[in-house]
């Protein structure tokens, strides 16, 4: 994963979007990158969300990624874990929150790159 993410640093983003719980990058050189949570097991609900306007980052240069663990959220029927992915660009940083809601038996987040 790390090798794939490092390979796209310095590229110009043509478009970035959140589609089907994947953060999808398309670059001006015709390449792309998908980031997603690849840890799905039984009895979990995994999803990605952002409040940022991703269309703003078209034309920006991708500079870096940073993962940050967030606090667990109290959940009525189990555990709700959150991990934040900060994406640093030449015009600023946007953040995607990765969520995993589960019964307590399964846990963790596993961001993968393709």
Q: Would you write up a description of this structure?
A:
With 114 residues, this protein is mostly beta strands. It is 5% helix and 54% strand. The chain contains one helix and nine strands. The strands form two sheets. Strands 4, 5, 6, 7 and 8 form a five-stranded antiparallel β-sheet that branches. A hairpin with a 2-residue loop joins β7 (78-89) and β8.
- Mean pLDDT figure: 84
N-to-C CA distance: 8 Å
Written as H for each helix and E for each strand, in order along the chain, the element string is HEEEEEEEEE
State Rg.
Answer: 15 Å
Shape label: elongated
Sequence stretches where pLDDT stays below 50 over 5 or more residues: none
Measured as a percent range, the helix fraction is under 10%
Classify the beta-strand content into a percent band.
over 45%
> Helix/strand/pairing class, anyone?
mainly beta
Main sheet?
5 strands, antiparallel
Give the tally of β-strands.
9
Number of helices: 1
């Amino acid at each position: 994963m790390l090798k794939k993410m490092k390979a796209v640093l310095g590229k110009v983003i043509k478009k970035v979007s959140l589609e089907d719980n994947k953060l999808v990058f398309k670059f001006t050189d015709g390449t792309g990158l998908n980031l997603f949570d690849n840890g799905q097991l039984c009895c979990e609900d995994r999803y990605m969300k952002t409040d940022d306007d991703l269309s703003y980052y078209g034309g920006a240069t991708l500079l870096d990624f940073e993962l940050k663990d967030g606090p667990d959220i109290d959940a009525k029927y189990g555990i709700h874990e959150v991990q934040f992915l900060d994406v640093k660009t030449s015009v600023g940083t946007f953040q995607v929150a990765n969520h995993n809601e589960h019964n307590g038996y399964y846990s963790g987040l596993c961001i993968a790159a393709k």
